[in-house]
Design a protein that fits this description.
Length: about 210
């Protein structure tokens, strides 16, 4: 994706819970730093004091789907304004654990919020900002449950959702990957860790 001269690049990691996305965030950032880039790692919802407070609310209690979507974008608006845009303008590469694709997958695909509504909120929140590259980590429901049940921590409410919700979210991510192949790379998160690391090395070397 074309980007302004001197601007950093914006890379997002996405995927269903349990696919291994978060495992690779810091590893990817480390590879980029080794390639000579100044890298900022952040996450959504979160990344600012306000957005982290909203994250705690979003992950704790069941919320109406539309209200949930609006809170996601409230957190995102603060995050974009205070963290992501300034970092990119300073020439940093931003690696973000989830962004608007997650809202399209979880609130759109998973909960049925209309895509035009989500896209309109995205247009209001970050009209000229899109990831340069998005890595979507994919896996089956069985792999996801096996990993989450062995995580040894309390699961948030999205991680506790049933199989039907998981499959809707997964399907939405795969649809996004098919619709934007130039930006989105779908990675089989069930592959051995060393194979995924090798693939990430190849992706970084091509940037």
């Amino acid at each position: 994706m074309a980007h302004a001269e001197g601007r950093g690049r914006f890379i997002t990691l996405e995927g269903v819970d349990g696919a291994g996305k978060s495992t690779h965030v810091e590893a990817l950032a480390g590879r980029l730093r080794s390639a000579g880039h100044e890298v900022l790692v952040t996450r959504e919802p979160g990344g600012t004091p306000l957005a982290e407070k909203l994250r705690a609310l979003l992950l704790a209690d069941a919320i109406d789907a539309l209200a949930e979507t609006l809170l996601m974008f409230a957190a995102r608006a603060d995050h974009v304004a205070r963290v992501i845009r300034p970092a990119l303008a300073a020439g940093k590469w931003v690696v973000c654990d989830r962004f608007t694709d997650a809202t399209l997958a979880y609130q759109g695909g998973g909960k049925g919020v209309a895509r035009p509504a989500i896209e309109q909120l995205a247009q209001m929140t970050h009209p000229d900002l899109r990831p340069d590259l998005t890595l979507v980590f994919d896996c089956s429901y069985e792999v996801s449950r096996g990993r989450l049940s062995g995580a040894g921590r309390k699961l948030d409410r999205f991680e506790r959702e049933d199989r039907a919700f998981f499959e809707r979210v997964r399907g939405a991510y795969l649809d996004l990957g098919r619709s934007e192949p130039a930006r989105i790379r779908v990675i089989d998160g069930s592959r051995p860790l060393h194979e995924i690391k090798k693939l990430l090395d190849e992706i970084v070397s091509s940037l």
